[in-house]
Automatic annotation (TrEMBL):
It holds the Pfam family RuvC. Binds 2 Mg(2+) ion per subunit. The lineage of its organism: Bacteria, Bacillati, Actinomycetota, Actinomycetes, Kitasatosporales. It catalyses: Endonucleolytic cleavage at a junction such as a reciprocal single-stranded crossover between two homologous DNA duplexes (Holliday junction). One of its GO terms (cellular component) is cytoplasm. One of its GO terms (molecular function) is crossover junction DNA endonuclease activity. The active site is at residues 7, 68, 141. This is Crossover junction endodeoxyribonuclease RuvC. Belongs to the RuvC family. HAMAP family: RuvC. Mg(2+) 2 binds at residue 68. The RuvA-RuvB-RuvC complex processes Holliday junction (HJ) DNA during genetic recombination and DNA repair. Endonuclease that resolves HJ intermediates. Cleaves cruciform DNA by making single-stranded nicks across the HJ at symmetrical positions within the homologous arms, yielding a 5'-phosphate and a 3'-hydroxyl group; requires a central core of homology in the junction. The consensus cleavage sequence is 5'-(A/T)TT(C/G)-3'. Cleavage occurs on the 3'-side of the TT dinucleotide at the point of strand exchange. Keywords: Cytoplasm, DNA damage, DNA recombination, DNA repair, DNA-binding, Endonuclease, Hydrolase, Magnesium, Metal-binding, Nuclease.
Length: 185
Protein backbone atom coordinates (compact mmCIF):
# COMPACT_ATOMS: atom_id res chain seq x y z
CA UNK A 1 0.00 0.00 0.00
CA UNK A 2 1.26 3.46 -0.91
CA UNK A 3 0.02 6.26 1.36
CA UNK A 4 0.50 10.02 1.17
CA UNK A 5 0.42 11.46 4.68
CA UNK A 6 -0.60 15.12 5.05
CA UNK A 7 0.04 17.15 8.20
CA UNK A 8 -2.13 20.15 7.31
CA UNK A 9 -1.05 23.70 7.99
CA UNK A 10 -1.49 27.02 6.27
CA UNK A 11 2.17 28.07 6.52
CA UNK A 12 3.78 24.61 6.43
CA UNK A 13 1.83 21.60 5.16
CA UNK A 14 3.87 18.45 5.74
CA UNK A 15 3.71 15.73 3.09
CA UNK A 16 5.27 12.28 3.07
CA UNK A 17 4.82 9.10 1.07
CA UNK A 18 5.35 5.67 2.61
CA UNK A 19 4.94 2.29 0.96
CA UNK A 20 4.52 -1.08 2.63
CA UNK A 21 2.18 -3.37 4.51
CA UNK A 22 1.62 -4.00 8.19
CA UNK A 23 4.19 -6.34 9.71
CA UNK A 24 6.83 -5.73 7.03
CA UNK A 25 9.56 -3.11 6.67
CA UNK A 26 8.27 0.19 5.28
CA UNK A 27 9.91 2.42 2.68
CA UNK A 28 9.84 6.21 2.48
CA UNK A 29 9.33 7.34 -1.11
CA UNK A 30 9.37 11.08 -0.45
CA UNK A 31 9.02 13.72 2.23
CA UNK A 32 8.70 17.48 2.20
CA UNK A 33 6.70 20.55 3.05
CA UNK A 34 4.38 22.70 0.98
CA UNK A 35 5.08 26.26 2.18
CA UNK A 36 3.05 29.41 1.76
CA UNK A 37 4.03 32.99 2.67
CA UNK A 38 2.40 34.21 5.88
CA UNK A 39 1.71 37.62 4.32
CA UNK A 40 -0.21 36.23 1.33
CA UNK A 41 -4.01 36.26 1.20
CA UNK A 42 -5.68 33.09 2.49
CA UNK A 43 -7.15 32.24 -0.92
CA UNK A 44 -3.73 32.44 -2.57
CA UNK A 45 -2.24 30.29 0.17
CA UNK A 46 -4.91 27.62 -0.31
CA UNK A 47 -4.28 27.58 -4.06
CA UNK A 48 -0.55 27.11 -3.40
CA UNK A 49 -1.32 24.19 -1.06
CA UNK A 50 -3.62 22.67 -3.68
CA UNK A 51 -0.91 22.94 -6.35
CA UNK A 52 1.69 21.45 -4.02
CA UNK A 53 -0.48 18.48 -3.02
CA UNK A 54 -1.53 17.90 -6.63
CA UNK A 55 2.16 17.75 -7.58
CA UNK A 56 2.77 15.11 -4.86
CA UNK A 57 -0.24 13.12 -6.05
CA UNK A 58 1.00 13.28 -9.65
CA UNK A 59 4.53 12.22 -8.75
CA UNK A 60 3.81 9.44 -6.24
CA UNK A 61 0.35 8.12 -7.22
CA UNK A 62 -0.72 7.03 -3.72
CA UNK A 63 -3.54 4.54 -3.16
CA UNK A 64 -4.77 6.50 -0.15
CA UNK A 65 -4.28 9.89 1.49
CA UNK A 66 -4.06 10.01 5.31
CA UNK A 67 -4.79 13.45 6.78
CA UNK A 68 -4.48 14.58 10.36
CA UNK A 69 -7.93 15.16 11.82
CA UNK A 70 -8.31 18.76 12.94
CA UNK A 71 -8.93 19.09 16.66
CA UNK A 72 -9.94 22.04 18.82
CA UNK A 73 -7.20 24.32 20.02
CA UNK A 74 -7.26 27.54 21.99
CA UNK A 75 -6.13 29.58 18.99
CA UNK A 76 -9.15 29.76 16.66
CA UNK A 77 -7.10 31.33 13.86
CA UNK A 78 -4.67 28.40 13.87
CA UNK A 79 -7.56 25.89 13.86
CA UNK A 80 -9.19 27.64 10.90
CA UNK A 81 -5.99 27.60 8.83
CA UNK A 82 -5.36 23.95 9.67
CA UNK A 83 -8.95 23.02 8.81
CA UNK A 84 -8.75 24.88 5.50
CA UNK A 85 -5.48 23.15 4.54
CA UNK A 86 -6.98 19.81 5.59
CA UNK A 87 -10.01 20.40 3.37
CA UNK A 88 -7.76 21.21 0.41
CA UNK A 89 -5.87 17.93 0.87
CA UNK A 90 -9.13 15.96 1.08
CA UNK A 91 -10.48 17.76 -2.00
CA UNK A 92 -7.35 17.05 -4.05
CA UNK A 93 -7.52 13.34 -3.23
CA UNK A 94 -11.29 13.02 -3.63
CA UNK A 95 -11.22 14.80 -6.99
CA UNK A 96 -8.98 11.95 -8.22
CA UNK A 97 -11.04 9.21 -6.59
CA UNK A 98 -8.36 8.49 -3.99
CA UNK A 99 -9.78 7.43 -0.61
CA UNK A 100 -9.03 9.68 2.38
CA UNK A 101 -8.54 8.54 5.96
CA UNK A 102 -8.47 10.86 8.96
CA UNK A 103 -6.40 10.13 12.07
CA UNK A 104 -6.23 12.16 15.26
CA UNK A 105 -2.83 13.30 16.54
CA UNK A 106 -3.12 10.98 19.56
CA UNK A 107 -3.93 7.98 17.31
CA UNK A 108 -0.84 8.68 15.24
CA UNK A 109 1.40 9.17 18.28
CA UNK A 110 0.10 5.97 19.89
CA UNK A 111 0.62 3.97 16.68
CA UNK A 112 4.16 5.27 16.15
CA UNK A 113 5.54 5.55 19.70
CA UNK A 114 3.16 3.54 21.87
CA UNK A 115 1.98 6.68 23.68
CA UNK A 116 -0.74 9.06 22.56
CA UNK A 117 1.03 11.81 24.51
CA UNK A 118 4.42 11.53 22.80
CA UNK A 119 6.14 14.78 21.85
CA UNK A 120 7.39 15.76 18.40
CA UNK A 121 10.95 14.65 19.20
CA UNK A 122 9.76 11.14 20.09
CA UNK A 123 7.63 10.92 16.93
CA UNK A 124 10.55 12.09 14.78
CA UNK A 125 12.90 9.58 16.40
CA UNK A 126 10.51 6.68 15.81
CA UNK A 127 9.81 7.72 12.20
CA UNK A 128 13.58 7.80 11.65
CA UNK A 129 13.97 4.34 13.14
CA UNK A 130 10.96 2.76 11.41
CA UNK A 131 11.95 4.06 7.98
CA UNK A 132 15.67 3.44 8.55
CA UNK A 133 16.61 7.08 7.89
CA UNK A 134 19.91 8.73 8.80
CA UNK A 135 18.22 11.64 10.60
CA UNK A 136 14.72 12.79 11.50
CA UNK A 137 12.98 14.65 8.67
CA UNK A 138 12.93 18.42 9.17
CA UNK A 139 10.81 20.33 9.91
CA UNK A 140 8.62 18.37 12.33
CA UNK A 141 5.65 18.79 9.94
CA UNK A 142 7.43 16.51 7.45
CA UNK A 143 8.08 13.85 10.10
CA UNK A 144 4.43 14.11 11.21
CA UNK A 145 3.26 13.51 7.62
CA UNK A 146 5.34 10.32 7.45
CA UNK A 147 3.95 9.28 10.84
CA UNK A 148 0.41 9.69 9.48
CA UNK A 149 1.21 7.45 6.50
CA UNK A 150 2.82 4.82 8.74
CA UNK A 151 -0.12 4.95 11.15
CA UNK A 152 -2.58 4.31 8.36
CA UNK A 153 -0.61 1.43 6.86
CA UNK A 154 -0.45 -0.25 10.25
CA UNK A 155 -4.09 0.44 11.17
CA UNK A 156 -5.70 -0.24 7.76
CA UNK A 157 -6.07 -4.04 8.13
CA UNK A 158 -7.80 -3.72 11.52
CA UNK A 159 -9.97 -0.83 10.31
CA UNK A 160 -11.04 -2.83 7.25
CA UNK A 161 -12.00 -5.84 9.38
CA UNK A 162 -13.96 -3.58 11.75
CA UNK A 163 -15.85 -1.95 8.85
CA UNK A 164 -16.68 -5.36 7.37
CA UNK A 165 -17.96 -6.61 10.72
CA UNK A 166 -20.08 -3.50 11.20
CA UNK A 167 -21.51 -3.83 7.70
CA UNK A 168 -22.33 -7.51 8.27
CA UNK A 169 -24.05 -6.72 11.58
CA UNK A 170 -26.35 -4.09 10.06
CA UNK A 171 -29.49 -5.22 8.33
CA UNK A 172 -29.53 -4.43 4.66
CA UNK A 173 -31.28 -1.18 3.84
CA UNK A 174 -31.80 -2.07 0.22
CA UNK A 175 -35.22 -3.67 -0.21
CA UNK A 176 -35.24 -7.15 -1.65
CA UNK A 177 -37.95 -8.45 -4.00
CA UNK A 178 -39.61 -10.29 -1.14
CA UNK A 179 -39.81 -7.22 1.08
CA UNK A 180 -41.27 -4.82 -1.54
CA UNK A 181 -45.03 -4.71 -1.58
CA UNK A 182 -46.65 -4.46 -4.93
CA UNK A 183 -48.87 -1.40 -5.20
CA UNK A 184 -51.85 -1.71 -7.48
CA UNK A 185 -54.45 0.88 -8.35
Amino acid sequence: MRVLGVDPGLTRCGVGVVEGVAGRPLAMLGVGVVRTPADAETGQRLVAIEQGIDAWLDEHRPELVAVERVFAQHNVRTVMGTAQASAVAMLCASRRGIPVALHTPSEVKAAITGSGRADKTQVGAMVTRLLRLDAPPKPADAADALALAICHIWRAPALNRLQQAQAAARPSRIPTTASVRKVTR
